[in-house]
Amino acid sequence: MASHVKPDIILYDLACTKSVSFSPVVWRIRLMLNYKNIPYKTIFLEFPDIEPTLKELGLVPVETSSGSKYTVPAIQHVPTNTYIMDSLPIAQFLESTYPDPPVPLTSELGREIETKARGVLGKAIYSSVMPREIRILSPRSQEYFRRTREASLGHRLEDLLDGDKEDQVWDGVSEVLGAVGDLIRTHNADGPFVLGARPSYTDFFIAGSFQSTRVVDEGVFQRITKYPGYREVYEACLPYMEKNN
């Protein structure tokens, strides 16, 4: 049955041909919205439509190491007509505006996990997910994705999967992936989440990355979650993934 509750949040997400959310950074916010039971609706944007759409809304591009850019997630808070872009500022806004149930946005353990995971998981996902991501994009987004990513890479996306290059990357990060998994399980006696019984933003960071990977390619998802700790967090977050479009 369709919901008739007026949304508090309009969530701008990245479109794919599977008609579900797949961006890892958007999933962090979607998990938070679902966990807090905040009513929202989604507007999916194709890659080439992100900048013109968000610029028209009056948003200011975020600064990155490669320059300023428009990005999802972005939200409109309907009651105050407030627009915010990028996952961390959105998470901070949601936590201050909807504090119950609470989602700790940071912790010493969470920062360590996120920093190390970005390094090793980022490298593995870069090699395995990015060249496969193009397969779930529309023709317009495929053209944009290939043109921009290959300009940065200096070679074809498919070259990342040539021969045993992909296996070499995974072999190179295997030990550190295991060590990060041990960190994730620090409080496993108290519950399945990083801090124990209740989720934090770090859990949504982990689960969102894995759900994104799973939408793109089940085989890569299975490869990542074979390490102890990762699947436990992912499965604990499954109730907050039911609304995915």
Automatic annotation (TrEMBL):
Residues 13-102 form the GST N-terminal domain. The lineage of its organism: Eukaryota, Fungi, Dikarya, Ascomycota, Pezizomycotina. Pfam families: GST_C_7, GST_N_2. It comes from Penicillium chrysogenum. This is GST N-terminal domain-containing protein. It comes from the Eukaryota.
